[in-house]
User: Fold this.
Amino acid sequence: MTVVADCALDMRGISKTFPGVKALSNVNFAVKFGTVHAVVGENGAGKSTLMKVLNGSYAPTSGTIKVGGNEVRMRKPADAQALGIRMVHQEINLVPDLTVAENVYLGRMPGKWTWLRKGEMIRKAAAVLKELGAAINPRERLGNLSISQQQLVEIAKAYAAQPRIIVLDEPTSSLSEHETAALFRILRKMRGEGIAIIYISHRLKEVLEIADEVTVLRDGSMIETRPIEGITAAEMIRLMVGREVSNVFPKSPAEIGASVLRVERIGDGASFRDVSFDVRAGEILGLTGLVGAGRTEVARAVFGLSRLVEGSVSVNGRKVVINSPSEAVRAGISYVPEDRKGDGIVPGMSVRENISLPILRRLTSFGRIRRSADRSLSAIYVKQFSISPPDGERRINLLSGGNQQKAVIAKWLAAKPAVLILDEPTRGVDVGAKAEIHHIIGQLVADGMAVVMISSELPEILGVCDRVVVMRDGRASAPLTRAELSEERIMALATGEEAA
Amino acid sequence: KTVCYVTAADSHAYATPANKALEARAKELGVEILSLSQDFDVQKGTEQLNTCVARKVDGIILWPLDPQAYIPGLARAQQANIPAILINSPMSDDAKPFIKSFTGPDVYEEGKLAADSLSKALGGKGSVVIIAGQAGNGTTIGRVNGFTDRLKETNADIKVLDTVNADFDQQKALVVSRDLITRFGDQITGVYANDDTMARGFIDAWKEANPSKPTPPIVGINGQKDAFESIKSGEMYSTIVQSPVEDGRLAINTMAEIIDGKEVKDRLPIPLTVVTKDNVGSVEPAF
Amino acid sequence: MTDAAMEISGVNRNDRFTRGSRLVDMLSKAGLALAILAVVLYGSFASPAFFTAGNLLNVLTSMSIVGIVVVGMTFVLVVGGLADLSVPATIACGAILSLGLQPLIGPVPAFALAVALAGLIGLLNGVLVGYVGINPIIATLGVGTIGLGIVQAAVGGVIVYGSNTASAEFAKGRLLGIPVVVLIFLAIALIGHFVLSRSFWGRWTLATGGNYSAAEASAVPVKAVKAGAFVITALASGISGGLLGLTLQSARPLIGSGYEFSAITAVVVGGVSIIGGFGSVPRAVAGLVFVQLLTNVMVLQGVRTPVQGFVLGILIVGAVGMDAALRKRGVA
Amino acid sequence: MRLLVLASQYRVLIILGLTLVVSALVVPGDLAPSTLGLGLDRAATIGLIAIGLTVLLIAGQIDLSGGAVFALAGIVSVILQREIGILPAAIVGILVGAVAGAINGALVVGLKVNSLVLTLATMLIFRSLAHWITNSQPVTGTDILLSLALAKTYLEIFTIRSALFIVLIVLLHVWLTRTIPGRNVFAVGSNPAAAKESGIASDRIVFLGFVLAGTLAGLAGVLQSLVTNTGSPVFGSELTVAVIAAVVVGGTRLEGGRGSALGTLGGVLTIGSLTIAMEFQSIPAYVQQVVSGLILILLVVLDRAVTTKGRAPGTRPALVRDNPITQGENV
Ligand SMILES: Nc1ncnc2c1ncn2[C@@H]1O[C@H](COP(=O)(O)OP(=O)(O)OP(=O)(O)O)[C@@H](O)[C@H]1O
Ligand SMILES: Nc1ncnc2c1ncn2[C@@H]1O[C@H](COP(=O)(O)OP(=O)(O)OP(=O)(O)O)[C@@H](O)[C@H]1O
Ligand SMILES: [Mg+2]
Ligand SMILES: [Mg+2]
Assistant:
């Protein structure tokens, strides 16, 4: 195939309609070889859909695609791969029962005829993982890895295929700064090799750092493509939301009260131990650290989704023993999980049914769900959180990621908790929705709620938290107060290296 | 001496008393019984014959569930010099060379007796439905064919409206009978059920549909207790008593004779008694 | 989208969202009704005996026993429990005990005890599936085998006869011209429908089937809910078996064989998803009605048993195929 | 804990060993080669079908129609003996199995329906066909001597049937562990969406898996019919459950993505020798039922105990949660 000029990809007039949603309308999108092309937009703007069209996962309703100057039709992902297109999905898309190496080479394992050359495969996979700075054993069963490790394997898989065009759909959403840096090194190297890189992220700082060009999508339409020079984050945000977004990280002005949740020397016998912290009314406690540091496990154990083997938990000064989420809810603890698709939503149910799920018993009389109570509950939150579309009867899996996230938070607020644990509440959420979520959190603490926020995004942690606990290898640091907070300090605690 | 007994099932209204009688009698005779249950699975039975041969037993009593499938196994037993006899159900003539004897009721004969009995009840004229057992089952085949062949043989003016399978199951018989009654209504002047359980199903369906009308003459087989009650009350015309106890005892007696080196007849039927209102008081029900 | 909702959003960004799936949604709901109608029409033309009160009542009576099981099985499928294969054992348990215990403790306590013991089998299933996390097919297969083995050992294979005529009369009798079993079936179906669609337990069942971990993380007692579906099915089968015993006045260990397949067939033809999270009792019952009417028409036409099985098989293929196709269009 | 994990990894061997030891104690001469051969032959029918089912289960599918295909193929091979001779008839019988498998596969892949329900339906269809073409009567072959020859044991252990089974299962082991298509079967069963995204032709793999399962069920049925010189529409009705039990006892997971040929071999042998041992003891069928049921459940519970607790406590199951047995319905 002859490469016409340096145009790697040219998508023209792409539209895609789902039952009930026009996800893309008449989008034009072109990418040059040897550049990093960022795609930004609010949740539900259609970024992932556009990429899935490019990847052959979805057939476009209309439009043409040219790869390397030639018009192509792709019916399945294999067609796209034959053209040298590789995609790292927003959602992890790997085979849990195969080894890491087999996953990296899934669909193109090396070998003569059909015999599997295992040794070679493992060697190559190890090399690729090392290059990505990931300490993962290629022989390990993939299902045993943490999400972020799986994310790294997903990237390794695309990279190892030596594509001509690589699509990364929010690859860093579950990566730490450290791993993100390693990824960027690789991306720069690939750019140097003339590969076309499409990079989707909600983290505009990353976009400004790595991208050469940026395309903004809004509501399924292409708004603008621009070189990165001369564009600012604020301008990108304006293009994305079509309005000015002022304070991205509002500081919480709330008054701090008595300690609400206190955990003392808790451990689960495996991923963490000797973890202590407390949260007070009106306070946001940040919980941060590198990937796999054990933050999620702490939260899940406190919420009764897994077992504690040592230590104690008290709420409002009373010791509580929590063995199941319903006991946690009764004790006044709510938990917004990090894995929205897996733990957050029941896809076949409406927004209304999802919101009322944890407190269903409170809405029933004689076993029967009181319909009016059910409806008004969801109506309140749909309005308060401006969930879009504002229709509680819509099936929640038809909403965009950010709106799903708002519904999940709403679900947990409906339980009227004393303390709310949020695990990566803004992961993969666009700036607009992020600001809204931060605003909601601010309101909550102003009303005297205690909030624990787990996040990997340092600016977010620095921006909203009153105190921060840093975890490393299953151990927690002493809380840092606002005065002690700095990016360097946190990184030092998270990596275990003394700050320079 | 050890005898291998490949029975139809361990847990069955007819087989269980037959097995018990056989084993009790064996004890009296000082014969040890190795009892294997096919659970109504032919394939299992064919393989169990191999187990018997491997155990080097002194004789095999087989309850066949298929007219043919056991022949290779029986041949292997013969090669190993193990005498074999059949209990309860016949096999095709091809099996003759491999067995010493067949003891038990003649299911084909039962079909014939049933045909005669029903003919008599109908005065040689009418139209009947047959409620048959499991499709493909040897007993079903014998009992149905004996019946229809006999009707042909005697040139009776009796038409078979339909033959349906109800798997020797009362509930299934109830369901198919409802449909038969809806379909044929008053055309049904007689009923032949392959066993009393299914006859019961028909009676219940009839009473549902025509609460006040008396049932047409119904002929069953087996001689169960409840069939006797039905005959007394006039709901059923006749049944044929085939005693499982006799069945079991005759088989082991015959095998004992064979082991002792005596010659036995190649066909030893157990007595079959047709029970109607006339003799229902004087005959013992089978089970 | 309601007008009020439009007002709240205020902006016109939401005209991207339409309700494209409505038609397909309707079709998947109405499909079965149309199919039933077609069978009824065909049956009425083909056989004069079909559209008579007597015949239709027969169909209703015949389907009542399995219908009770269908109500329970719906819960199992909706909760994501695939299928309960121990139904033959629970039916046998219900039938044999409700007859066998009559002379000892009287008909009503016998019935109650039979159903309770059947429920115990269900509890065992439920614990294995819900709490231990064993695949339902394997668990119910194993428990069913064990249960049936014990039942057989207990009665030694002989037939158990009923000894109480009053209870037999009641079970075979009619109330207002409708057979008692039909009334019991309808009552159980109504209760089942209420529980699944209106009560918190039903919502929990749907949520657990829809996304197990999300339901767990939403404070739904998922293990109990999953186990509950099997207990419900076992209780239903126990009742069904008890009624079967009472109407037949006799019971054998293998009395319930085949009921599990009939029940699953009905539920699946009714369009209840086998992966869970979706389905309702009326749908399952409609599936049952359809299968039973079709079988009835074939019987009235004198179609032979093997051919009936053949047609039924093709029908299930058609039903699940259509359901899958419609679902794919309805919601991707 | 360690011990449990070990026990679970080698459970098939352990159980098999236990069964053999116990039966050696209670049965005179059980460990004689001829008795072992008996167990093996007994296991061969289940085993042949289990080979196909192992592949299907790993690929996240299930086939309940095996028993019916078994009967149908046997009937065809017997009926045709008179017309075209024994060997061609046998081949046609096996082909019938292949075609039945292809029908299953095409329907599952084409309609994108759950295979549990679909093969439940085709089971009904194939079984009805078997009754239909035989008019529900068993049919008889032409050559009874062949049956005897086929059932002969060689080297005191192997019959043709059991030798065939052993060879095929070893081949399956190599294929599953050492070849790319073999590994892809695991991928398809473990996460169908990811397999598809990676360019693996999962539809083709699933389809061929069904063809394989059908062919092997056909082969087993033809062999059975030759050995008994009979084709019967009621053959194999108890088979499917036994086969599933054997495969699951062997450690293959019903949800797809995990399993092994050697495990299946162990499972099949366990069930075979268990049956023989219990039969030698004249244990009533219902007690046998209870025992097999208990073993099945105990094994699966043990498996559960180690797979959930074997990992560090508190860790959560993998993120990718698509349950492949449900694959097809919501792609
Ligand atoms: N399979 C689908 N069926 C129906 N609607 C869909 C489907 N996939 C996406 N959508 C809808 O299409 C729109 C665009 O979604 P898409 O996932 O492309 O957004 P996105 O820009 O990637 O958002 P995010 O930043 O949250 O990942 C959303 O409204 C979404 O709800
Ligand atoms: N799916 C999983 N299966 C097995 N172990 C896991 C899984 N997910 C995480 N772990 C392990 O649990 C430990 C703590 O992980 P956890 O997810 O709590 O960390 P985290 O700080 O929340 O990081 P992140 O959420 O960014 O991955 C790690 O050792 C990790 O390897
Ligand atoms: Mg996206
Ligand atoms: Mg985490």
User: Anything to note?
Assistant: Chain D touches chain B at residues 34-35, 38, 41-42, 45, 131, 134, 136-138, 140, 144, 147-148, 151, 224, 227-230, 232-239, 276, 279-280, 282, 284-286 (CB under 8 Å). Residues 20 and 199 of chain D are 46 Å apart (CA to CA). Chain D has one domain: 33-303. Confidence is low (pLDDT under 50) at residues 309-331 of chain D.
